[in-house]
Amino acid sequence: xxxxxxxxxxxxxxxxxxxxxxxxxxxxxxxxxxxxxxxxxxxxxxxxxxxxxxxxxxxxxxxxxxxxxxxxxxxxxxxxxxxxxxxxxxxxxxxxxxxxxxxxxxxxxxxxxxxxxxxxxxxxxxxxxxxxxxxxxxxxxxxxxxxxxxxxxxxxxxxxxxxxxxxxxxxxxxxxxxxxxxxxxxxxxxxxxxxxxxxxxxxxxxxxxxxxxxxxxxxxxxxxxxxxxxxxxxxxxxxxxxxxxxxxxxxxxxxxxxxxxxxxxxxxxxxxxxxxxxxxxxxxxxxxxxxxxxxxxxxxxxxxxxxxxxxxxxxxxxxxxxxxxxxxxxxxxxxxxxxxxxxxxxxxxxxxxxxxxxxxxxxxxxxxxxxxxxxxxxxxxxxxxxxxxxxxxxxxxxxxxxxxxxxxxxxxxxxxxxxxxxxxxxxxxxxxxxxxxxxxxxxxxxxxxxxxxxxxxxxxxxxxxxxxxxxxxxxxxxxxxxxxxxxxxx
Length: 490
What we know:
This protein is α/β, with parallel strands linked by helices. The chain has helices at 49-67, 94-102, 106-123, 139-153, 225-237, 254-266, 305-310, 315-323, 335-352, 366-380, 385-397, 403-417, 440-455, 459-471; strands at 14-17, 22-25, 33-38, 71-78, 84-86, 90-93, 131-134, 154-157, 160-163, 198-203, 221-223, 241-247, 279-285, 288-290, 331-333, 474-476, 484-486. It contains 14 helices and 17 strands.
């Protein structure tokens, strides 16, 4: 393994490693490159907005690595087989259950919800990874991976092949979890040696047939969910790679199990050397909290991105809402908070419009270069996006600066934040709520009548028309070139 180069120019990039529980300098495994793997969704349903926070975080990380000068190779997987209804090896396969409930094939379910997930990512300004890895494309490699580690680390039961967690050092260190028999973290399976042992391969029970199943040395069946990420990460990035990301819920079971497999693959070194885990750094975003209790798919009705759009909120308002909190902090969702984020985004878009037509030129103005250095310091400090947002607001508000240089500054900053400030318009942020009972033609006609009433000094009629629009969910903005906007009710 080659030594890492000196950090990219500017502030040193320091990131919080969940495995070591400390901030560390980013030192790439391969000089000049940043290889990142992000756990993707199980595509049995739409993703709720809490799931989507993980991808805003991973995208911001990737954008920051590119901003710091690294050649980014980012992988996101699509889990279309093997993930059970509990992350703790319990219940039915999510894909098989969804297919049965909807009367469709598991393959059709996967194709539909994969497309919906990618559509949501695009609406949030999340860039495509270098490669999407689909679990079912890698089953032969999963079998080969399992064969390589089976003799030393696994044992077979009637239900499949299980990983013995006692065969690797420091199991559970990532979660700081106790893994003795009393914890009850993992579903009980008769014959398991330890409560925390987990399935590498699940045999199809006698007399049953799965839609997704393959032949293996341990019987016909399907891979375990944890195996999939180890195999796809190794196949596309090599072990070890730089950073593995996911939601904080993965820190407790999925990622410890993935790490155990990676240790087995790499020769069982202990986790005092983080590289034995398969990645130099493990990074996790915290939860999005909804006091209304609609964040979980198990609740039936749940909040997804389209729900926000149907209420009249542009998707990038949700992205900005995520950026307003540090990725390691809990973020509470509320309609009031989303509305405030939309207002903040509108102000940024209005201010940035002044340089939409300018041609970017090199920055020579010391005020701009100093501001960029402060922005660099913020994002290099474990992705401190709350501070970074205040700095881009300072940038768009700057007066008496060259428009081309200002555009260059905003291109650099927004390249990290991903808010599309240099092309987004105020009109684009005007999202029609699904429940709106009036169309834009009727709004403009009513505003024309109101203008006539005001010209005739018939202020009673003018006020009545304004109230009429307000009752229909329209906010009249006198003196604003946009003229009106949808009124968002919480």
